[in-house]
Amino acid sequence: MAPIKACIFDLDGVIVNTSNYHYLAWKRLTNELGFDITEADNEQLRGVSRMECLRIILSIGGVSVSADQLYDLAEKKNNWYLEYVQKMDEHEILPGAAEFIQAARESGLKVAIASASKNAGIILRRVKLDTVYDALVDGNTVNRSKPNPDIFLRSARELNVDPENCIVFEDAISGIQAAHNAGMRSIGIGSDIMLKNAHMVVPSLGVMSLEDLYSLENFA
Ligand code: G6P
Ligand code: MG
After folding, report:
1. Domains of the chain
2. Is the CB–ligand 1 distance for residue 175 below 6 Å?
3. Which of 59, 120, 132, 146 is 20 to 30 A away from residue 114, measured at CA?
4. Atom of ligand 1 nearest to the CA of 13
5. Where do the annotations place substrate binding (predicted)?
């Protein structure tokens, strides 16, 4: 019955939908390497760090490369991905996300953004959401990927709130697991079949109210 004092939002799939841009950039890379990935393959990459994604992708294609080449390939993909990011603006904020974050803050809750992306700061600036949070923890600050709880524990520390008083909003199964590993409650954004382990699942922040949020205070 711990009171809720902070909301921690994942970025990709919760506030913006950059997943398709990642997909297009990875696809371009795999095509250059002589194979292809599908949208289903892309689902495995949600919440996974850039280097880990690259390892998964190369294993799909059965391609092995040297450590140096690994970094070159990751950089190449990232440059293509950034071409899409540079064109983003506030119209790409997912429905209801900005409004929900604002309502949470106005009700006195602290807000952190926790993303595995090293580009999180750039994306938040592009969509003009760079002043709506109290802490940003991203792939530049934390190394170990979700389901490791590091990113959420670090967010709680920066907000000066105990983990049991935090609620995590996540679209990735590994992100829900990371929240639970951090001792936090979770709200899944997306399919309730896929995110069945979350304490609550909604299709988007657009249908989420503060009343729904506070109903989670009854979960230990
Ligand atoms: C997010 C996305 C992942 C992506 C990761 C790293 O978690 O869901 O698909 O691989 O960020 O992104 P980056 O921008 O650092 O390559
Ligand atoms: Mg995500």
Report:
1. 6-16+92-218 (3.40.50.1000), 19-85 (1.10.150.240)
2. no
3. 59
4. 8
5. 10-12, 26, 45-50, 77, 115-119, 146
